[in-house]
Amino acid sequence: MAPEPGEAGWRSHAQNPTPLIFHDRRWRLYYAVRDQENRARILWVDVDPLDEMRVLARADTPILPLGAPGCFDSAGQGPSMALWRDGRVHLYYMGMHLRRDVPYGLAIGLATSPDGAEFTRHSTGPVLSVGPKDPYFVSLAHIQTEPEGYSAWYMSATGWTARPDGPADADYGLRRAVSEDGLRWTPQDVMVAPGISALPEGGGLARPWRARIDGTERLFFSYRARSAFRTDSAAAYRILSLPLDAAGMPAGPAEPLVFANPPGAEDWDGFMQAYPTVLPLGQGHVMLYNGNGFGQTGFGWATRGL
């Protein structure tokens, strides 16, 4: 999925494919596009996963207006996690606002819908934002229902690094949080971050996604180096995973995802692979992910066991 020439309000990118499952033959994928002012907005496309992701329907207007000036999502929005709850769709999304000292701030908001097409904000403010454990920003949560409520893995910034050729870049890892109602979250000390779990110092871990593979819970994510990740493919995002124990805690080192048919240098995903989403399909799994340019070339999929 990539921008089509002349698409209204869609200048570039198709980032963070986020599924909502209606049934085996209809998946709704929310994704973020960039408009003419480089602001991220959320669209959706319905696909048939059993027919090579054949497109069934598409939204042609963003699902939410941007937040009012000063709000956490005034400069952009991107999908993070879609859940069915009490007959409504709950879409957790990343909101962006601009800053003067660093390029931006991020937080996680919630919007709801009766049909997964037209959404209303749960509140004008975020449901998870900066705090004592997350002083810089939070973004892109993967949320699961638990017997006692909800758990989440989400991106947590750990600082900013200045660079001579442009604005500062953020460092970020992944943090765990729990909630009784999916609205009020308690961040925990547990983190997966650069410098631990066999990961190099510095850089960023993005888009956590938890999935069960061959009987083992795994946390998928993408990792990039601290510098040169825009110009050097070796430093750009690659997809990794690590095992989780029965309590959902890290239980081993991070391991790179291996493609049976690795992307070539000229492929849409040859420079980078980022922002994974892993779903069961039939007797195997499908992974939705972004390619080059942080989603500028759109998103695609890879399969395992199919």
Q: How would you describe this protein?
A:
By secondary structure, the protein is mainly β. It has a single domain (12-304), classed as Glycosyl hydrolase domain, family 43 (Tachylectin-2, Chain A, 5 Propeller). Helices cover 1% and strands 53% of the residues. It contains one helix and 19 strands. It has one helix at 292-295, and strands at residues 12-23, 26-34, 40-48, 54-58, 76-85, 88-98, 104-113, 120-121, 138-146, 149-163, 166-179, 185-192, 204-213, 216-224, 238-243, 255-256, 274-281, 284-290, 299-304. Strands 1-2-3-4 form a four-stranded antiparallel β-sheet. It has a four-stranded antiparallel β-sheet with strand order 5-6-7-8, with no helix packed on it. Strands 9-10-11-12 form a four-stranded antiparallel β-sheet, with no helix packed on it. The longest helix is centred in the last third of the chain and has 4 residues, at 292-295. The mean pLDDT is 93.
